[in-house]
Design goal:
This protein is mainly beta and about 250 residues long. Helix content is about 10%, strand content about 40%.
Length: about 250
């Protein structure tokens, strides 16, 4: 069934109208709305048994910027049928928060002053901050704070939103334009500023200089351009429907 993006609430409580553009739920919105520089999705992984280790996470975009991990002890686990590990019945990739990570060295040369991201994930625990990704020099990373907020780092940091809970799916669609950040976290609009005005793309998942992330990563896409707010809201709406996220 198709879903038209609903209005969403800004940080101040005002409602923002979304685009009337429709995306077929169950398809892959990042590939349909605007071609990303990379797009990985747990429910597109094939050939691995439930609970098996993931060696290569294939980029579904035409660029094929795959994420890989060659070291056995550092590979995340893929889940497709274990109920407690799934997101509304969909597959997840689980990083243990100790040493699991995957890297895509080919992304290090991509970036610029306009960068957008889509992340659908679950923190397994919020006992401490949980890393989502970093670039090669840790100037640009995202993490889930133990307070339930989302932190963006680019030279300096910006804290966005609240209410992220352990073992609960959240959706964040964000654009960085120079030092300005606009994000929709579970449909609510937040803004912030950071020090850097240009950004490299992530080369490591669930890892940064401060540690690792104990997270289930579900879908992750990135663009070397700034999405419009209508496009951002459309993806929020599509994934809220797919993963049964209420906002």
């Amino acid at each position: 069934m198709a879903r038209t993006a609903a209005s969403t609430r800004t940080a101040s409580g005002a409602r923002s109208a979304a685009s009337s553009f429709q995306v077929q739920v169950g398809q892959n919105a990042p590939l349909e709305i605007r071609k990303p520089s990379f797009y990985i999705a747990a429910d597109r992984v094939t050939g691995i048994a439930d609970g098996g280790v993931l060696t290569t996470w294939t980029d579904e975009s035409p660029s094929r910027n795959n994420f890989t991990q060659a070291t056995a002890g550092f590979k995340p686990l893929f889940f497709s049928t274990t109920g407690a590990e799934l997101a509304n019945g969909f597959a997840t990739v689980k990083f243990d928060g100790t040493d699991d990570t995957m890297a895509s060295p080919t992304l290090a040369s991509i970036g610029g002053s306009n960068v957008s991201t889509l992340i659908v994930a679950q923190p397994v625990t919020l006992a401490a901050d949980q890393e989502v990704f970093e670039d090669s020099i840790d100037n640009f990373h995202d993490k889930i704070l133990s307070t339930g907020s989302y932190e963006v780092k680019g030279g300096s940091t910006a804290t966005l939103g609240s209410g992220i809970a352990a073992n609960t799916t959240f959706i964040i669609v964000m654009k960085r334009q120079g030092g300005n950040v606009v994000a929709f976290l579970n449909g609510a609009r937040f803004t912030g500023t950071i020090g850097n005005t240009t950004f490299a793309f992530p080369t490591n998942l669930a890892k940064a200089a401060a540690g690792f992330g104990n997270i289930r990563l579900i879908e992750f896409a990135m663009w070397d351009s700034a999405l419009t707010e209508s496009e951002m809201l459309e993806m929020c709406s599509t994934y809220a429907n797919k993963y049964d996220v209420s906002f």
